[in-house]
Amino acid sequence: MADLAEVVAAIAARGAEATDRGRVADYIPELAKVSAGHFGIAVVTAAGAEHVAGDADTPFSIQSVSKVFALVEALCRHGEGVWDRVGREPSGSAFNSIIQLELEQGRPRNPFINAGAIAVSDLIAASCEPGAAIGAILARVRALAGDDSIAVDAAVAWSEAVTGYRNAALANYMRSFGTIAGPVDATLSVYFQQCAIAMSCRQLARAGRFLAAGGVQDGVVIVSPERARRINALMLTCGHYDASGDFAFRVGLPAKSGVGGGILAIAPGRASIAVWSPGLSPQGNSLLGTAALEQLAQAMGWSVF
Ligand code: DON
């Protein structure tokens, strides 16, 4: 069996040197300011041991990785009722696509595409006092990471809010079908802020550890083992949008990407892994982050297949 610390260090060295680094997202202007030169990795084992390398302690915009924590929050508040609003099928479409919404009566395919995540934000808002939903999501993330310093990057949230025409279209369209019940502006505000949460690889890997440990973190039941399995199943099948099949083929782990260049991956029973490299593939997933996870899964024999 390969030595995990050595594998992590070798992956970070390759990540720092790589020349083809993908393209940093620029449709959210604030994200375009981030250098493509960063590379970080953190592996937190199910038992809590940590191995980090590169820019593992530099905060970045977690963007769609937040959709995992929002889903957990919604499931804890609404139970299986979440699935009355959102499906559990891969979309095979881009993260911000609208086409299936018209064909499928305003019901998003899954909670990880933008439409599904906006519907999940709306569900959380429905069970909170006005204005408290982002606080609930943030509190969840802080508790899971064991770090109260984690915060929303207000500049990123604002940058997305003033350019988020597609998300506004998705939200308004879903509101017309009743998939969203609350005020569209309030729902979008929750969604933009959750995407703008800034975390480091170390914080993110810590926050995902319960998914590698049957739903339990430091003796506290976060979700049942069955729910942890199901969230992992959704991450595997839907976590990389129209690249989910290729990610499963190459890496073989449940994982969720974000356009900030972060990926949270779960090796069930073994570890929670966070990688960050801001340059993206054409589908909007971290190019070097994916390569790093492929190397890690291969070296450690962690693919679930
Ligand atoms: O809604 C958006 O477009 C972004 N806040 C999040 C998209 C995203 O991270 C897609 N993931 N790869």
From TrEMBL:
Cross-referenced InterPro entries: Beta-lactam/transpept-like (IPR012338), Glutaminase (IPR015868)
Keyword annotations from UniProtKB, A to Z: Acetylation, Hydrolase
One GO MF term: glutaminase activity
Binding site for substrate: S64, N114, E160, N167, Y191, Y241, V259
Any Pfam family the entry gives: Glutaminase
Family: Belongs to the glutaminase family.
Catalysed reactions listed for this entry: L-glutamine + H2O = L-glutamate + NH4(+)
Record's protein name: Glutaminase
Coiled-coil annotated spans: none
GO biological process terms on file: glutamate biosynthetic process; L-glutamine catabolic process
